[in-house]
Amino acid sequence: MAVTDSVANMLTIIRNALKVRKETVDIPASKLNEKILGIFKQHGFIEDVRLLKDNKQGVLKIYLKYENKKSVIVGLSRVSKSGLRVYVANDEIPRVLSGMGTAVLSTSKGIIDDKEARKLKTGGEVLCYIW
Predict the structure, then answer these.
(1) Between helices 6-19 and 31-42, what is the axis angle to 10°?
(2) Which of 7, 13, 45, 123 could form a cystine bridge with 40, CB 3.0-4.6 A?
């Protein structure tokens, strides 16, 4: 079965793994997913992410982060979908939970978080929220 939305698939796999308190989870590798997970790691939502090579596209191994037996990630949400793309200008970049969460955007400068987009004064497509 072909996956049409790899970002939504990744977020669903992470969400399901958090519900059963898994330490690691594997997802099919893609450059977009790798950059989004890099932002998650930078903001402290996951411990680590590693690219495992195989004879196909590869696998991203995500090490989930827990504090006091509770997940650091409270929620994940896919914003821009294949049926409805969500674009924002540089002055309309959303704040997730008044700055407690992070919005991931696809811009002309690459895949960046909301704080970096405000600093660079660039808008783009809102991919997902994490808090």
Answers:
(1) 50
(2) 45
